[in-house]
Model the fold of this input.
Amino acid sequence: MTLNLLARELGASVVDCSDEFFGAADALLLSTPPQRPGTYGLRGADVDGWESRRHNPDHDWVVIRAAHPGRIEQVELETTGFRFNAPRSISVDVSDTAEGPWQEILTDAEVRPNSVNEYPVADAGRSASFVRLRVFPDGGVARFRAHGVVDVSRSRPPEGVRLSDIRLGCRVRASEGSFGDPWSVISHAMPRNTHDGWETPRRSDADRHFVELSWPDPVRLRTLEVVATPFRGNCAARITVEAWADDASGWAALGTFEITSGATTVIELAATDARRVRVRALPDGGFSRLWFYGAQLPLTHPQGQE
Done:
């Protein structure tokens, strides 16, 4: 059975697009049925979908990071609500990077307005991590789905226990909470919106603002997943990670790492024993989740001698 590799709930995210004058590209990944708001703003009718401005001489495009690398077997383009402003045709490409090179898997496919358009993919090619939708010449699309299978050889979860878990006694505090709830950074669910995460004020003093996770018993940190969906325009550019084991050792710097906006960044850490860990957003901004992986300590329990 195939799944939608572009499901936002699984971690898919929009990387970039040519234009979103009338409707945000992020709406393409929603699982909810498209709605017809019936309201108007300064740019015209509000739409539930991605819509570019008129009169593009060539085409518009959007690049999406798939939730997991995989092979696409069917593309689904929903234009519900777009009766007179849907594109005439689409093409779909895949790649392992957001910049290409691109392999075309669907070419010049005709689009029916106000409908669910399904396109079988005859030759999916190799598995890929990014999908590019091109619409000709312009127009609006409500939802975009790519059904396929995950390439398990390229999509391995981090090894060890997810330590960012209240069931292990993990607690969260933050230097401030202007945007979002700091506790959301250890939620097991994929983020719903930018309020489902933690974010600093603009132009904040990064030395003052941090999120801190702590455990009642020592843990061994090995890997960190920083989930930044759907933080695209307000994501931190990088983070610093510090660990605290006890009063004698104090805080130890584990490094400064760049993170990718609107996506999940996996960071391999030097194995570190700690009771507390702090993450700072640099120079400011936010992220959705901080999923630390590793092991609880003590790793082994010595057996008494008879």
In short: Residues 301-306 have pLDDT under 50 and may be disordered. The chain has no helices and 21 strands. The two ends are 54 Å apart (CA to CA).
